[in-house]
Amino acid sequence: MITKPSVLLVAALLAHILSPSPAGAQSPASLNGLWDATVTVSGEIEIPFRFELSGSGSSVQGSFFNGDDKVTSTTGQLENGSLVLSFDEYGTKLEAAVKDGRLEGQYTRGTRGAPYPFQARRFAPAPARNTNIPSIAGVWNVQVGKSSKGEAAWQLIVRQSGAEASAAILRIDGDTGTLTGTYRDGKFVLSHFSGARPLRLELTPGADGTLAVVQNKDNPFTAVRMEEAKAKGLPAPSDPSRFTSVKDPTEPFRFSFPGLDGKLVSNTDPRFQGKVVIVSISGSWCPNCHDEAPFLAELYKKYRKQGLEIVSLSFEEEAQLKNPVRLRAFMKRYNIDYTVLLPGEPRQLNELVPQGVNLSSFPTSFLLGRDGRVRGAHAGFPGKASGKFHTEAKEEMTAQVERLLAEAPQRSSSK
């Protein structure tokens, strides 16, 4: 005979078995793999990009992509259907709810502005399309009239395999990162989001061999193949080695700012006397500074014992100046052990570095000889997305450092 309590127990067990699993039962492993994601910028521009999740237990990692490079979360967890990923070197956080196999939430940018709405669904390969696909691979001159930094032209670097294409726009301060996409409806639609610098790019081939270039929803620019632009005498992209200079190159380059420990560090300190010094204008908020930092860390490791010093003047927002948690994570991420100072906010750049002429790019590097005087300057830094321009920039700066190190030590003029 089945008693009433037994009946109640069986009913409860059946109800538990048959009822749908709560959101909290979602495991990180069940989310593993690639996702098609978007962030919405300026309230209306959807930027699609590839995203990856991996994990086990309650621990999870999320990764953005910049070409073949991954930008992976510092910490992450999935609890009760809520996904939280932190990217400490950007000072950002992705928060999303798992709903019916989708992710919906926002990407919080910390001190960098309003959050971006975020959503993602499982990755699905785009269907193949048999169309006549124009070839746009190569380097293009993008005529921009006059940019906010005074440039007349940018470089557009395109790689292509059939309908698939990747591209980067190289400006004086650096590149956009690698944008990827496909050809459809008469144009290539490419996009990018690596945790910073979201961008949607439309490239429409014209009958005259030009490209119409639209960034997000801005007015179109016209791009001409680089060889043709030279033949026509069109304005060329600015030379980063000639863009920025100093008012008086016979004067020593001066700096005196606090480090992260609050102690003042100056160009007159003994550690810099008779040394070759790179002074890097930087900021942990700056995507192109993230591109440059691994190279500077590598350069310092290689040449430090030969007499190279590197000083990063890291301009940060007010909140970060008070508590530079993002900068500390930036330094940890790129194994930075050269000198890092905190001069002030980005808007104070020219006020705090008054010797600079046309100093408007983050990053910018000044190269100082053993006498403390500026022997060269390089505006911006092209990342890996710029291909040969990335390689050439590293080779050029390395060669200049080697030439300066080879010079005989002189009596310092840095006072």
Write the layout of secondary structure elements.
Blueprint: H1 4-18, H2 28-31, E1 33-41, E2 45-56, E3 59-66, E4 69-72, E5 75-79, E6 82-87, E7 92-99, E8 102-108, E9 116-122, E10 138-143, E11 153-161, E12 164-171, E13 174-175, E14 179-184, E15 187-192, E16 199-205, E17 211-215, E18 221-225, H3 226-232, H4 240-243, E19 245-246, E20 256-258, E21 264-266, E22 276-282, H5 287-303, E23 308-314, H6 318-322, H7 325-333, E24 339-341, H8 349-352, E25 356-357, E26 364-368, E27 374-379, H9 388-406
Parallel strand pairs: 22-23, 23-24
Antiparallel strand pairs: 1-2, 1-9, 2-3, 3-4, 5-6, 6-7, 7-8, 8-9, 10-11, 10-18, 11-12, 12-13, 12-14, 14-15, 15-16, 16-17, 17-18, 19-25, 20-21, 22-26, 26-27
How do the strands of the widest beta sheet line up side by side? 4-3-2-1-9-8-7-6-5
Overall CATH class of the largest domain? Alpha Beta
The stretches of 5 or more residues where confidence is low (pLDDT under 50) are 1-24
- Main pleated-sheet profile: 9 strands, antiparallel
User: How many E-type strands?
Assistant: 27
Distance between the termini: 100 Å
Count, helices: 9
**CATH fold description of the largest domain:** Glutaredoxin
Radius of gyration: 26 Å
Query: What is the number of independent domains?
Result: 3
Rounded mean pLDDT is: 91
Helix amount: 10-25%
CATH superfamily of the largest domain: Glutaredoxin
What's the CATH architecture name of the largest domain?
Answer: 3-Layer(aba) Sandwich
Shape annotation: globular
Q: Report the structural category.
A: alpha+beta
* Strand percentage: 35-45%
